Amino acid sequence: MPETEPFADLTRENLDRYPGRRLRAGGGTRPELLLLEEGSRRAVVKDYRHSGWLMRRLAGPWLIGREERVYRLLEGMEGVPRLIARLDRHALVVEHIAGRSCAEFPDGSLPVEFFARLREVVEGMHARGVVHCDLKNRSNIVVGEDGRPYIVDFASAFAREGGWFPFRRFLFERFRVDDLRAVAKAKLLVARVGTEEEAHFAFHRGPAERVVRAIRDAARWAFRLAARK
Prior knowledge:
By secondary structure, the chain is of the alpha+beta class. The protein has helices at residues 53-73, 112-127, 165-191, 196-203, 207-227, and strands at 20-24, 32-38, 41-47, 83-88, 91-95, 99-101, 130-131, 141-144, 149-151, 158-159. The strands form three sheets. The protein has a five-stranded antiparallel beta sheet with strand order 1-2-3-5-4, with helices on one face. The longest helix has 27 residues, at 165-191.
């Protein structure tokens, strides 16, 4: 008889039957994060049910749906957590990656090979039509217990296809470069290895990119301000 997949029976109603702990309380624009265990496997529940009104009623379900689509596009890909379930309109469940975030490592403490593998993961993600958009936050890069790179938290990610195609494809290309620049910058800072060309690529931004990033950051700020009300 085949072994049942971990968390196969997980529902909103039986969440409290699984051992685990709260990683972060929900509120405002922030979703609640729960760490659940079943046997030797762990999962993270991202849940907007206890966030602010705007997030709970409107933005949260939209963000959860978008993130679910991204995980499905990346299904089976190495270096990306596995989507376990869409719990309901407010929450999804993903595989927990054991390890430490890249942000926890002192500068010069990770080998250059780690970042070569990380770039392969990022390029594989781009080949499937997904950009992460927040790899500059090195907490979203995890050094797994196996020493390999993993990318987590796809809340800011989006897919190339869908919506108004020409504009979406333009943004995809801009943020694709952003992802690669974040990898190069992390390599230079954490591995302390890189060429002059890599340094220029990592730290130089052209006018078009500065404009796009400014618009994106302003939109995020306005959204967070509105969601607190």
